[in-house]
Amino acid sequence: ALMLFFLTTCPIALFYFAIATLNIQQPFSFKLMLISILDFVTTLNYSLNFYLHCLTSKLFRKEFFQYFPCSISIAFRQSNQASNVTHTQRYLTR
After folding, report:
1. What are the pLDDT digits (tens) for 28-55?
2. What is the dihedral of CA 47, 48, 51, 53, to 10 degrees?
3. Cα 47 from chain centroid?
4. How far lies 34's CA from each of 4, 13, 38, 41, 81, in Å?
5. Reduced to 3 DSSP states, what percent helix, strand and coil does the chain have, rounded to the nearest 5?
6. pTM of the shown model
7. Beta carbons of 8 and 45 less than 8 angstroms apart
8. How far apart are alpha carbons 71 and 92 in whole angstroms?
9. Per-domain boundaries in the chain
């Protein structure tokens, strides 16, 4: 998540820093277009964080599905404690 944060927020920060310190003279339309693109990349951080947490955190998925139940649930049950074999059982909830 930290790497995603840096990848999505550093470009706009570096752009603003470069404009302020290097006094780059570019047409206003070019700056506006670049700022719009970089702002979009920055806002991607929020939506991508959700998917990243869903993919990597079992606790996050468990809590999320508790608050937002869906029509198809996947239950993970450990059937044999000694051999650490995990079976997946899928069922429809109504």
Report:
1. 899 999 999 999 999 999 889 888 888 8
2. -100
3. 5
4. 20, 12, 6, 11, 56
5. 65, 20, 20
6. 0.55
7. yes
8. 6
9. 1-56, 58-94
